[in-house]
Design brief:
Elements (H helix, E strand, L loop, with lengths): L5 E3 L9 H20 L5 E3 L1
Parallel strand pairs: 1-2
């Protein structure tokens, strides 16, 4: 039996600067790593 997947929705954003992109990527990385750590199944991004 496969472990139940956790679905994570990527938040949409409008970027005006490279720093805004970098911050969004850092925030997304944190969210995904937290989901992986708290789940016994895979994380699906959509």
């Amino acid at each position: 039996m496969e472990p139940e997947a956790v679905y994570v929705m990527i938040p949409s954003r409008t970027f005006k600067t490279p720093d805004e992109v970098r911050q969004w990527v850092l925030d997304l990385e944190k969210t995904l790593l937290e989901k992986l750590a708290s789940s016994s199944g895979p994380v699906v991004v959509h």
